[in-house]
């Protein structure tokens, strides 16, 4: 049975709220409500602390659960309860019947903190935002899907980059471009051959020619994009035909800067949301999802949504 994503979804969007029956206990994501020790750590990191669980903005059932129920897929057994099982995430984007129009609204891309992103990212953060096991899993995945190191003519774009890209050790290409918000972080990134400082939420236009890159990566940052369709259309433009776009994410974020539709929903919803960006941007093959979580329940989860630019005739 196809996943009827569009059934009454648009009318339900204002009530998005991601409380899952299977979720681990939700902790506050506000430093002021943590222990005194946590408050000190958060203050030292100047908003750079990682929070253990997503924010919940309201009370209700996730739109994904509602959709799956309406589609008749859940039956007497909760699909979302099974989504924690290894492999279930891969089913989220299978045979989706997308609505004709992009189903999300402007308010879904608002954030708790709408102040300048340039100011927020002004101070470099030489930290990692997922744990070591999740990083290792992502690096391993890259090693399996990237073009071989030092392949003539290959160009890679690391979007929303920082001081580390989590690429395989020693990985090199003639051109690896990093785009990010902090120049000091980008300067430290040893894999990059060049970098661009740009706020995609202000200017989503990518400063590159058509059909430039073989691979585009984005690590734990897709949830901060307030103009995702514009960015994904640009990704399609700058990718070579058949080029690969890899969006990876966990359940970690700077919650005040993540878009509301992300902080109010859960992991399987996030897969569907990112998949919708690929679909509605156009120019991509049907997106697919992979769960590369290395140690479910004991380390950070790690998910991939990827697609390739359609090959030209």
Automatic annotation (TrEMBL):
Methyltransferase type domain: residues covered: 183-246
Top-level lineage group: Eukaryota
Keywords for this protein: Membrane, Transmembrane, Transmembrane helix
Keyword hit for Transmembrane helix: yes
GO BP annotations, alphabetical order: alkaloid metabolic process
Transmembrane segments: 55-76
Pfam assignment, any one: Methyltransf_11
Keyword Transmembrane helix (UniProt): yes
GO function terms (MF aspect): S-adenosylmethionine-dependent methyltransferase activity
Identification of the protein by name: Methyltransferase type 11 domain-containing protein
């Amino acid at each position: 049975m196809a996943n009827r994503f569009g059934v009454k979804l648009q009318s339900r969007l204002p009530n998005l709220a991601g409380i899952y029956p299977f979720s681990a206990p939700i902790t506050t994501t506000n430093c002021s409500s943590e222990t005194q020790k946590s408050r000190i750590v958060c203050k030292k990191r100047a908003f750079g602390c990682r929070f253990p669980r997503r924010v919940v903005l309201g009370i209700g059932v996730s739109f994904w659960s509602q959709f799956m129920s309406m589609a008749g897929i859940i039956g007497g057994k909760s699909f979302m309860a099974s989504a924690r099982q290894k492999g279930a995430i891969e089913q989220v984007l299978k045979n989706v019947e997308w609505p004709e129009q992009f189903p999300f609204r402007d308010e879904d891309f608002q954030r708790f903190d709408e102040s300048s992103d340039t100011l927020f990212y002004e101070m470099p953060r030489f930290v990692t935002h997922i744990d070591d096991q999740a990083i290792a899993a992502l690096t391993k995945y890259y090693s399996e899907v990237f073009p071989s190191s030092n392949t003539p003519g290959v160009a890679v774009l690391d979007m929303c980059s920082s001081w580390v890209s989590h690429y395989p050790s020693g990985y090199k290409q003639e051109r690896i471009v990093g785009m990010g918000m902090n120049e000091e972080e980008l300067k430290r990134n040893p894999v990059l051959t060049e970098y661009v400082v740009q706020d995609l939420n202000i200017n989503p236009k990518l400063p590159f020619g058509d059909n430039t890159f073989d691979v585009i990566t984005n690590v734990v940052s897709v949830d901060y994009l307030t103009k995702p369709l514009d960015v994904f259309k640009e990704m399609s433009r700058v990718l070579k035909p058949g080029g690969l776009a890899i969006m990876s994410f966990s359940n970690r974020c700077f919650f005040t800067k993540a878009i509301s539709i992300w902080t109010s929903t859960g992991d399987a919803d996030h897969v569907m949301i990112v998949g919708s960006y690929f679909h509605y941007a156009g120019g991509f093959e049907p997106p697919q999802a992979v769960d590369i979580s290395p140690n479910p329940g004991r380390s950070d989860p790690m998910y991939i949504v990827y697609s390739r630019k359609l090959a030209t005739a």
